[in-house]
Amino acid sequence: MIATEKLASVREQFPVTKRQLYLDSAHQTPLSLPVRDALYSFLTEGYEMAGPKPVWVRRVEETRANVARFFNASPSEIAFTKNTSEGLNIAANAVPLEAGDNVVLIEGDHPNNAYAWLNLKRKGVEVRFVPLKDNEIAAAKTFEPFIDERTKVVTLSHVTFHAGQVHDLASIGKLCKERGIYLVVDAMQSVGVIPVDVKALNISVLAAGTHKGLLVPQGLGILYVADGLDELRPAYIAMSSMLNPPADYIARAEDMAVRKDALRFEFGNINLPDLHALDAAIKLIESVGVSNIQKHVTALGDQLLSELDKLDVKVVGPRERGQRNHIYVLDLPVQKWADHFARNDVRVSPERGGIRISLAVFNTADDIKRLVDVIRTGLRETTAAAVAQVD
Ligand SMILES: Cc1ncc(COP(=O)(O)O)c(C=O)c1O
């Protein structure tokens, strides 16, 4: 858990908390003061000194090492990308797949993952969708009936954006390892709010953006590619991907060997401002600890569920601890309730199953109380309107 004083000081770092009830971190993080300051110093260095780029590049490597530690990976297994979609598309085009091979996904999972693999249908790759209810957790047994000797990839979100399920990556990773199947994980909704140990979970490739749990603006992604998967070849390359980049900057067809590490998937200049922001964000997150953040948001979730029960409001996702984390989708009609929350200065997201509440390191028990008060008022208004209609 997060000690009360620490929570108060972290909350101070997020000015949005003084302006509105922010329960929308699964959509986009509000920026913190350290992240703003890191961006500001980068901009100052840019306009005062136009760099110096070697210093910026050195910091990128420091950030890579910090990100690697975050996932229990080594820095050689981390590439920086633009976003989750880019990482997933890199994976889809890197895995050696032939016509007749198949890839197994969850029906209704994030479309950015689904499209990356559906795009391979034109090469004759079969995409198999596993049906799953919003309150169900995907585990090895969910995938097993859909897997055969031509299955090359299992891919899914760690945490779902639309119902908040935390899928059982441990059993899925074990199954994939036993069967020689690549496990490709979209960790956009889990990174920064759930510890993700890529080694313990047997993840082959992990892709995530950084604008939710990693607390920085959009435009920077992280790609983990396990060491040793040399058969994964980049579809795009640039000088930075090459094993022997030519010192004279002249590309020669005789030497097309790409790097062995994940940097073979990183091409061209990358998002330097966001990388500076990410370094500050990781320090902030690590000052609390990801497992403490997880415990904190889960406890707020307990409080929310017990208050919702009193109001007879259901959630569409799972209720059990361990199966949920920071995303709770309330089974309330979206149109009416989105307006109601907006009128009351509560930032939430409309989702396919209802209204999505998402919790972060800076949210508190008082935030939940305030949310519950706003829901109670909305329910009263609905009852009053229904009575007036009957009269
Ligand atoms: C599970 C999941 N994957 C991917 C994305 C977004 O993809 P990208 O980072 O490419 O914008 C989101 C939400 O924005 C998401 O919830």
From TrEMBL:
<dbReference type="Pfam" id="PF00266">
    <property type="entry name" value="Aminotran_5"/>
</dbReference>
<keyword id="KW-0808">Transferase</keyword>
<feature type="domain" description="Aminotransferase class V">
    <location>
        <begin position="22"/>
        <end position="370"/>
    </location>
</feature>
<dbReference type="InterPro" id="IPR015421">
    <property type="entry name" value="PyrdxlP-dep_Trfase_major"/>
</dbReference>
<keyword id="KW-0032">Aminotransferase</keyword>
<dbReference type="InterPro" id="IPR000192">
    <property type="entry name" value="Aminotrans_V_dom"/>
</dbReference>
<dbReference type="InterPro" id="IPR015422">
    <property type="entry name" value="PyrdxlP-dep_Trfase_small"/>
</dbReference>
<dbReference type="GO" id="GO:0008483">
    <property type="term" value="F:transaminase activity"/>
</dbReference>
<protein>
    <submittedName>
        <fullName>Aminotransferase, class V</fullName>
    </submittedName>
</protein>
<dbReference type="InterPro" id="IPR015424">
    <property type="entry name" value="PyrdxlP-dep_Trfase"/>
</dbReference>
<keyword id="KW-0663">Pyridoxal phosphate</keyword>
